Amino acid sequence: MIDIGLSKMALVGAVALIVIGPEKLPRVARTVGTLLGKAQRYVADVKAEVNRSMELDELRKMKEQVEGAARDVEQSIQTEARAFEKDWNEATGALSSADGAASAFEDTPPAPAYKHPGKNWRLKRGAMPQWYKARAGVRTKVLSGAARVARYRPKKFH
Questions:
Q1: How far apart are CA 151 and CA 155, in angstroms?
Q2: What span, in angstroms and rounded, lies between the C-alpha atoms of 20 and 72?
Q3: What's the per-residue H, E or C state across the chain?
Q4: Which of 100, 106, 102 is nearest to 92 (CA)?
Q5: Which of 27, 29, 40, 104 has the highest CB neighbour count under 10 A?
Q6: What is the maximal distance between C-alpha atoms in the chain?
Q7: What are phi and psi of 66, to 5 degrees?
Q8: Tens-digit pLDDT profile for the chain (158 aa)?
Q9: C-alpha closest to that of 93 among 102, 81, 83, 82
Q10: Is 15 left (phi over 0), alpha (psi -120 to 50) or beta?
Q11: What is the CA radius of gyration of the chain?
């Protein structure tokens, strides 16, 4: 990189003061600072984009590896399933050729279908409305013992 020290910066400032003049120097310095800031942001954006593209490439490679491993697992499962089916067919074929052991299983009736119990709809339909409870004097709120005594205590006559 460029080695810029304090002495070199002072020399550049003095030359700029002489060439540009004291009236225009603050505006030029502000413009140069703005341009340098934009350049730094542009360089940072380019670096971030390069890093993102590198990470994206790494993720693509990792995705391909995972997909390959998944394909291998799927193929091994399929081969194992075929072998299991073959063994199952051989085993069940031996049972059906035995002394009618398979016919004992065929005579049993199928299990009934599952029926969800649901909610007790009779409770909802039989629920008493609040206006009826209020008219009939049904208690809807719980009173503590002290509140009940205070409410139902006989009135004193003076």
A1: 10
A2: 72
A3: CCCCCHHHHHHHHHHHHHHHCCCCHHHHHHHHHHHHHHHHHHHHHHHHHHHHHHHHHHHHHHHHHHHHHHHHHHHHHHHHHHHHHHHHHHHHHHHHCCCCHHHHHHCCCCCCCCCCCCCCHHHHHCCCCHHHHHHHCCCCCCCCHHHHHHHHCCCCCC
A4: 102
A5: 29
A6: 117
A7: -65, -40
A8: 467 788 888 888 888 888 888 888 889 889 988 999 999 999 999 999 999 999 999 999 999 999 999 999 999 999 999 999 998 888 888 766 655 555 555 667 778 888 776 666 666 666 777 788 778 877 777 788 888 888 888 877 65
A9: 102
A10: alpha
A11: 45
The residue whose two tokens read 């074929």 is 93
Residue 41 corresponds to which tokens in the numbers above? 């942001």
Residue with tokens 């051989």: 90
Place of tokens 């299991």: 84
For residue 12 the two structure tokens come to 């550049």
User: In this structure, what token pair is assigned to residue 78?
Assistant: 């399929």
Residue 44 token pair: 């940072």
Total residues found in the chain within this entry: 158
